[in-house]
Write a structure and sequence with these properties.
Blueprint: H1 3-8, E1 14-19, H2 29-39, E2 45-48, E3 54-59, E4 65-70, H3 76-87, E5 90-96, H4 102-114, E6 119-123, H5 144-155, E7 173-178, H6 189-202, E8 206-211, H7 215-227, E9 234-238, H8 246-254, H9 260-267, H10 272-292, E10 297-301, H11 307-316
Parallel strand pairs: 1-2, 1-10, 2-5, 5-6, 6-7, 7-8, 8-9, 9-10
Antiparallel strand pairs: 3-4
Helix pairs in contact: 4-5, 5-6, 10-11
């Protein structure tokens, strides 16, 4: 079922969450252990992140260094298929530009279509570690807008090979990322909004936001979207704080603001157990307000851990 149809048919705010594929070599049972406690809250969908290859340097037997490609968290497509089979919940794979040529993207979309996966979250993805900026693959997409164009083309039966006879139309519901506190690469909020509007005009059916800790950022973001003609559902992303270290780490990585009241509460905490409780209570407060203002879905970034998300859901649903 398409995400947009979940939202249209809902009479209340829905619940969803994002998971990471297990590290290479780990048992998939570790993934189920993080998902099982959250199934009781009837998630409308579960996102599965995609992790591109990276390069590491290894020393050869002769002492020379070689550059080796590696992926630490493979399995996104297989996990999505397993999720839908095991839990009967819609899976939403992330599809990124990094590491994919246009041909690779088309083949991945064909696989997802054959598996009965109806939804895609289309993202540019991060630069490789060590690169100063995002570098697309040869004949790959340089940004999410181009990726959305390709997905929408396939929905219209337009493939890379123009000589195909009666090619099948796919029927993907396409999600895009939105940034209430603007994307790190955007020079200003106006430019960021223009780019988001282009993604919606290209075919994005819904938006999922970056995490935020001050609901005013989300409220203002939705208002600016509507003023700019963006009418698709905007799903807020929630990440409860769990350690004191995150107060410094999260703003640095994601270019987001931590409210002063939350900073002070964490600074006064005795240990990370106390910080986790503070983070849970703060997220509950956020979620209750977001539900009151009509957020279509509350989407949780769980990082593979269900304890806090489960406690928040218990308090709000």
């Amino acid at each position: 079922m398409k995400i947009i149809d979940h939202i249209r048919g809902a009479k209340k705010t829905l619940f969803s969450f994002e998971i990471l594929p297990p590290l290479k070599g780990a048992d998939i049972a570790t993934l189920w252990q993080g998902i099982d406690p959250l199934i009781a809250f009837n998630p409308a969908f579960i996102d599965v992140t995609y992790h591109r290859e990276d390069f590491i340097l290894r020393t050869k037997n002769d002492g020379a260094m070689e550059k080796v490609s590696t992926r630490k968290r493979p399995g996104t497509v297989a996990i999505c298929a397993a999720l839908q089979h095991k839990y009967k919940v819609d899976a939403v794979p992330h599809l990124i530009c990094g590491g994919f040529s246009r041909e690779d993207t088309e083949n991945a979309l064909i696989d997802l279509d054959f598996l009965g996966i109806d939804n895609i979250l289309a993202l540019r993805g991060d630069a490789r570690k060590g690169d100063t900026h995002f570098i697309p693959e040869p004949d790959g997409h340089k940004n999410a807008l181009d990726l959305i164009h390709q997905i929408r083309n396939m929905n219209a039966g337009i493939y890379l090979d123009e000589e195909l006879t009666n090619p099948r139309d796919t029927h993907f519901c396409i999600g895009a990322a939105g940034y209430p506190e603007i994307h790190m690469d955007a020079p200003n909020a106006e430019t960021d909004m223009k780019y988001l509007k282009r993604k919606v005009e290209a075919g994005a059916d819904f938006i999922v936001t970056q995490m935020f800790f001050d609901n005013r950022h989300y409220i203002d973001f939705v208002k600016r979207c509507r003023e700019n003609g963006i009418q698709v559902p905007i799903i807020p992303g929630i990440k409860p704080l769990s350690t004191a270290k995150q107060i410094a780490v999260l703003p640095n990585i994601f270019h987001i603001d931590i409210p002063e009241d939350l900073k002070k509460a964490v600074a006064a905490a005795n240990d990370d157990k106390s910080v986790k409780q503070i983070g849970t209570e703060w997220a509950i407060m956020q979620c209750k307000e977001l539900m009151q203002i009509g957020a279509p879905v509350l989407h949780f970034y769980t990082m593979g851990k269900s304890e806090q998300t489960g406690a928040i859901c218990q308090a709000i649903f």
